[in-house]
Amino acid sequence: MEKKRVIVTVIGEDRVGIIAAVAEVLAKYQVNILDISQTILQDFFTMMMIVDISKSTVSLQALQDILKTLGEQIGMQIHAQHEDIFRFMHRI
Amino acid sequence: MALNYSAEEIMQTIRMVQAENLDIRTITMGISLRDCCHEEMSVASRKVFDKICKKAEKLVATGEAISREYGIPIINKRISVTPISMIGESCANGSYVELAVALDKAAQETGVNFIGGFSALVHKGYTSGDRRLIDAIPQAMAETDRVCSSINIGTTKAGINMDAVCQMGHVIKKTAELTKDRDAIGCAKLVVFCNAPEDNPFMAGSFHGVGEPETVINVGVSGPGVVLAAIRNHPEWDFNTLASVIKRTAFKITRMGELVGREAGRRLDMPFGIVDLSLAPTPAIGDSVADILEAMGLERVGGHGTTAALAMLNDAVKKGGAMASSNVGGLSGAFIPISEDAGMIRAVEEGALCLDKLEAMTCVCSVGLDMFAVPGDTTAEVISAIIADEAAIGMINKKTTAVRILPVPGKKVGDQVEFGGLLGRAPVMPLHPYDPGIFVKRGGRIPAPICALTN
Q1: Which one of A5, B91, B114, B307 has the fewest beta carbons within 10 angstroms of its own beta carbon?
Q2: Does B244 contact A at CB distance below 8 Å?
Q3: ipTM score above 0.85
Q4: Closest CB to B256 among A37, A50, A89
Q5: Confidence label for B79 from pLDDT (cuts 50, 70 and 90)
């Protein structure tokens, strides 16, 4: 099955358990993490994940809502966007 | 598998959307109504309504879905249609207002906020349908909320139809009068063009040209805030560096439009027409073309140097944008409306920007004298002369120019006109007091210029 790649970004103040919390939710809905990178950008903890949602049990829109709610709970900003927006903007 | 994008790249995209107001300004579906003609006005109106509702049924929902999946706001979903003067031409009786009302209802039904195409192309002369449509404009603008009207009164190839220019002065005055309880908002939906493009997705001048396919998706991008953020705080850059940064930024903005246009066309099963890579400001702070010009090093927009700054900005945006899309069209340049740009409003209020300088600016940017308020007692002849001046710039320079003027009844110089939303607010600007009456009433056409003889 063709992969459907989505980029998840998590931004906020660094603390224990951010990756664990996000990964737990993704696992629950069968979203496969393909790659993770994290860094401190302009004093903010910034984590980026490429995930594959082709086997996800929820739609991208539902996943966006779930991650948004999670972000509110743990005090982080979480976005999930289709990979193409980054591909179009930054790759020719 | 490696992460294909750097943290900086990903954060740049997110920052553009969240902090710098990057958005897709509009997805505009063009719909041909050429098969909706009928002898009975009521039947033609029903056919128009039915066809628009059928074709655009999924437009708004599709736009919203794309917006969510990519995480990029798509502000407006809109429709443009074949110039309505042609559609009502076969109707023996009845008023064109009925067609305007049908368009308005179709816009409501499909959930779009504007529908463009209550239009006529009269640059070389009128047909009977053109006359009936133009006569119906004031009432149509007063009785509808979402219908936009545009009239093309000149082209480089045909010259300027001065009969139409003269008439449009009166039509604009009457439209203002009929909508005076709402600060002449009818005039905000009425634009007079020279060299009108057939694939422009931006209102109020959008219509579906006769050379266009049955249906098409055109996209208008925005992003003055992104360009501003890229060049702000760099007085040390020379012009080559400045132009290069603007080009690269415009490229990225336009890529968003290309992506959204392709995707919308695919999902709606219709061809993707063009990306219009205009920098379209909004009244939001930081989303201003004027602010970009000031960030280039001008104390105030409207001062000396403004025309040169705008020329460079406009050209760099086009160069970057043209590389980013397979099809660029529409107006494609920097918009400089007064009421929709906080920096332009400020410049007018401070007396830094006058109408004469604005006219000079329109020589080097995409559109024209746009969304500016003038005193309510401005005569139809003066309005016609303003249109003639602007059309002449377009005709000679082989570019699109337009006038969207707001002669607001009861208002005088220094007063404010408040529309709210994307239309913003406009300070009433002074005009020259001299009478151009004899000139604009001569009648006939200003002949096509020598530069039209290109064959």
Answers
A1: B307
A2: no
A3: yes
A4: A89
A5: very high
